[in-house]
Each structure stands twice: as C-alpha cells, then as structure tokens.
Amino acid sequence: MGRSQETFSKKEKEKARHKKRQDKEQKKEERKANAAKGQGLDMMLAYVDENGNLTTTPPDPRNKKTVDAGSISIGVDRQEATAAVAERKGVVTTWLDTKGYGFIKDTQSQQSIFFHKNGLIDDIRQQDKVSFQIETTPKGPSAVEVRKLG
C-alpha cells in the first residue's frame, strides 16, 4: 500500500478551514443567544429631532411642520450666460493653438481668464496685449470678443 497523498500544507489548510468553520458556528450561536436577551426592535430605533440630532425618544406630533415638496430645490440652479458691457484689457499669458484655448491676465484685477478660439476676433500670440469682454458661463468667467491691441 502506498503513502498517503496528504502533505503537511494540505493538512494545515484543512485545519485552518475547520477552525474557521467552528469560529463561524460559535459566532452564530452567540448572536442567537444575544438576540433572545435583546429588548426588541423598539430599542434599535433612532429618531431625528428638529435640530437634526439623533435621539431615542420619538418626536412630538404637535410640533410637526409641513413642507411644500415643490419648494425644495436639489442641486444648484444653472447660471445664464451674461455678457458684461465694459471692455477690459489684458495680456495673453497662455495660448495653445493646437488645443484652441488660452488664458488672459486681466490688467485691472490680475485675474487669469479663460478664452476659446471661438471668442477671438483677431489672430493672437502669447504675450500680445488684447482687449476683451467678460462673459459669465456656468463654468466661470470667460473672455469673448478678444481683439489684439496696437
């Protein structure tokens, strides 16, 4: 008769599986024993008071406020694109011709303002002095009607 095909590692793996199974059964029995001692579902409930804090006491129905569901707005309202009338001046700090966009540094506010090639009137290069108008878009301020000065 031949030797057993069980190696040391196979025996260790089997022992580990058996121990894991026993631990699982033991935990299951403990949960069943604790559930029998528990006070029930009422002790597991939590309530939220008018300030948003969790509490164990139910709210007073007399203090109930009604809210119109139509008045609740989820998210942020979209901003409409509006053009400013005042013409501003600045310097083109970045211009990526291959990508079709760049940034202008406003001389008045020192703010970096995005512009797209669709908003260009003249051909421009980096470090050119330009005049432009600011349009507020949903993503922030954007320069339009960009003209090269001088």
Automatic annotation (TrEMBL):
Matching Gene3D superfamilies: Nucleic acid-binding proteins (2.40.50.140)
GO MF term list: DNA binding
Protein name as catalogued: DNA-binding protein
Pfam family for this entry, one: CSD
Region Disordered, residue ranges: 1-71
GO cellular component, one term: cytosol
Keywords: DNA-binding
InterPro entries attached to this UniProt entry: CSD, CSP_DNA-bd, NA-bd_OB-fold
Coiled-coil annotated spans: none
CSD domain residues: 87-148
Record field: compositional bias (Basic and acidic residues): 22-33
SUPFAM superfamilies to which the protein is assigned, alphabetical: Nucleic acid-binding proteins (SSF50249)
